[in-house]
Amino acid sequence: MAISVNVPLKPLTGQFPQDDTFASNGGLRHAGVLTINADDWGRDRETTDRILECANRRVISSASGMVFMEDSEHAASLAGERRIDIGLHLNLTEAFSARNASASLQEHHGRVARFLRRHRLFQTVYHPGLATSFEYVVKAQLEEFNRIYGEAPKRIDGHHHMHLSENVLTGKLLPSGTLLRRNFSFAPGEKSWINRRYRKFVDSRLQRRHLVVDYLFSIEPIETARLQRIFSCAQRAFVELETHPVNEAEFQFLTSPEMTKLLRGFPIAPDFSAMALRHTAARSPML
Length: 287
Description:
The chain has 287 residues and is of the alpha/beta class. 40% of the residues lie in helices and 12% in strands. It has one domain (33-283): TIM Barrel (Alpha-Beta Barrel), CATH 3.20.20.370. Helix 7 links the parallel strand 6 and strand 7 (238-243). It is globular, with a radius of gyration of 19 Å.
């Protein structure tokens, strides 16, 4: 597989960049952790199968599961059998495809989805007229996850990152204490000043009620040198790499010899449990 090397990036050296958005959560330094998460588990059979293939090859740590989708219940059974760490992939934008999604749920979800899809900036706007629909849709997905996985989600992220929409955050719709996916991390110059300030503001709000990792990156653009620099951050911080194996290019790279070779120098964690342990240690009094 050909790997692109044409997109310039700011160098990530032995020290962490000092950009305000790229900064870690602060506090005491801990041993680093690299987690690779696959989104959209249970969306349909093809997506589930591709993520399962990645799990079997041990090139991902975990997956984020969608509920009320055509393969959700089958995927939940597989996760239990294969002991795959699954969090909730909150869906506020894509129509539910499972037969057990009630008419009422579909109606509330449709209102929310139409609003959020109208413009990419609408997720930053609180819509009081949709507060009831947001609450209904989020609560239903939390309950459905509990039903099919047998426990409440310990980790939550969002389809198209809509778990960070203003109605969800202002309404405090997600359980306090859960591990919540933060905004993407960027090196200086990759985003505008106002974009970085907004992301920093949102992440600071998340940290008041939730656990968050130090850094979040997308696997794309797929460039070996870029991934090596990202993985080097995991030697001193908790890093999550977001992947979508349903995308052909990502799946081909994740299951390629290049990925296997790359991970020899950067072993991945089997799940997100290290994050909870770190939080417990941070809250414990020093002896």
